[in-house]
Amino acid sequence: MPRKMIGTSPEALRKRAAEVDQILTRVFGRQEPGGSEEPLDTLVETILSQNTTDVNSHKAFLALKRRYPKWESLLTERPSTVAGIIREGGLAMIKARRIIGALKFIKKERDRLDLEFLRGMSPSEADHWLAQMKGVGPKTRGIVLLFSLRMPAFPVDTHIHRVTKRIGLIGPKVSREDAQEVLASLVPQSEYYNFHINLIYHGRTVCVARNPKCAICKVSHLCNYYYAVFLAHS
After folding, report:
1. Catalytic residue (one of 65, 134, 139, 173)
2. 139 assigned to active site
3. Are residues 47 and 16 part of one domain?
4. pLDDT (mean) for 80-98
């Protein structure tokens, strides 16, 4: 089979993204947002998810909520104590300091621990406000915007970064942070949630980090990696 690489013009990439989106929707179903998540909870849990699995970060989040049912209790807590509670999520001391720091920043700026006020802002204003907190990067902000505030954002995790790089929707040297902007420009805002979730499902089950299952992949005919790597060694 001839080597077939994807065109890199914006039009070609948008078309390819739409095709991948349609196929993954047929495979995994259409993903619709459920009830809106509490943005402060989402912020804390997303900080916990940095550089670890969703399973471990969720366990750490539940342990933290059990110990501190109200986030106000964390404002005067020692980072070492918090780190001991969330150690299962990895990088415990770093994340403890980031969580406590974020909560203190919100309290100082708003005089209460609540992010509901962000709903009254534009997406860019809300993103800028969240960016003031140390350790709250583009992915964390994007998750809060998309999942809690129902604002247009395209957060990129390791799965999405890997899958879209292999397909060729983003360049080989594009960082996760820059990938958010690139992918957001290729997909209609109405598809952000659906495409985001299905790319993650695909990355977890088929386009895995090691030994991707190209032979059963439904989007292999649209993928640069398949033509350039898998077929060359098959």
Report:
1. 139
2. yes
3. no
4. 93
Can you tell me whether residue 41 is helix, strand or coil? helix
CB 82 within 8 A of CB 100: yes
Q: Is 58 exposed, middle or buried (0-12, 13-18, 19+ CB in 10 A)?
A: middle
Q: Evaluate whether residue 5 is within a structural domain.
A: no
Question: Residue 78's CB: how many other CB atoms inside 10 A?
Answer: 10
Nearest to 98 by CA among 148, 46, 29, 58: 46
Please determine, for residue 4, whether its predicted confidence score (pLDDT) is greater than 70. no
User: Token pair of 188, please?
Assistant: 């209609």
Among 118, 105, 32, 48, CA closest to 75: 105
- CA dist 174 and 187 (Å) reads 17
The CA distance from 193 to 176, in Å, is: 17
For residues 54 and 108, membership in a common domain is answered with yes
Domain that holds residue 167: 10-32+155-233
CATH, residue 113: 1.10.340.30
Q: Residue 6 — very low, low, confident or very high, per pLDDT cuts 50/70/90?
A: low
Q: Which of 103, 119, 148 is the last residue of a domain?
A: 148
* 108-137-54 Cα angle (round to 5): 105
The string of DSSP letters for 181-230 reads HHHHHHS-GGGHHHHHHHHHHHHHHTS-SSS--GGG-TTGGG-HHIIIII
Residue 178 has pLDDT above 50, yes or no: yes
